[in-house]
Design a protein that fits this description.
single chain, 357 residues, mainly alpha, two-stranded antiparallel ribbon
Amino acid sequence: MKLKNLLIAVLAISVLGSGLNGFSEVTAADRENCLMCHKYPNMARIGEDGLERNYYVDEHIFLNSLHGEVGCRECHPYIKKFPHDPVTEKVDCANECHIKPPFAEKNFSHREIIDVFKSSEHEKKAEDSPLMKQSKPDCKYCHLNPLYKRVDENIISFGETLDRCLNCHQKKGVAEAYLHMTHRLRHKTSRDSREIVSLCAENCHGDEQLMQKLGASAAAVEAVETYRESIHGKMTALGSEKAADCISCHASSLIHDIYDKDNPKSTINKDNLLTLCKNCHAKINPYFVRIAVHPSIKEPHNPVLFLISNMVLRTILYGTVFGLMGLLFLESYRRKKDGIGMKIKSGSSWRNTKGLK
């Protein structure tokens, strides 16, 4: 009886202990107890536009995300009571969080990087058409990304990583802060070059009809196609981590500062191209930057390049292939005429069939 009671007590303590652990974890991450309702997978409603929206929050995914320690109302401060009224306001990523980064004296905020984004070409402007406003990306378009990819530390330079860290973190104590942030090297929460190209091309720049409706130039309409035909695009498609992708040329280490090429702050402005190209190419001169990064081989755009690629290079390619085939045929004919036949015996080889030495 004593042994039975002891086993029951141990079992009860184990179950209770695991329950308390789970309870403390949930309480720490969900101080307002939002998951009391949002933990149900089928929690959804039909909006005024007739579309169904799901408000389910996966607790495990949330706790293990970058925002796992951020309270719900730090992103949704407009919620004042529980249960709350229908939400009509969007999340503002510039809100100040109640979290202080290492070596920082103030609470964390994305405000500085968002100010950069708002000055870029991707920010919705008052003069934009409704279609343009609808087509421009917001924070979630790029950052709603479940991919956590391990990468080799050697392919990420110290300077590049540190520049990105300084977008949000203070310079003071940077050596110590860098030690804290080295997980950005080992668990890089961003995309590789091929994914960046797909992200930019998938729903916007790769849609030629949409780009034409938005009034883009002919070069901008074909930008994805011409990039994929370039040396950068072909190297990226083959898996190169060093070849330039869209972000490599169109933004600095701030990532969000993408401007029109005529903007003096743009990395692709003609006055900034030499500095830009030196990030990858050490020995260059002003003539180097004149090389077309998005070369179009279509005749109306560049008749010289069209002539070279469609006639000269093809003539060389087909001339070499058919020339080698002709040489092979003539050599086979000569050997056959001299009595040397091809026999498959103990491996393929030419053998003398007439007893010639």
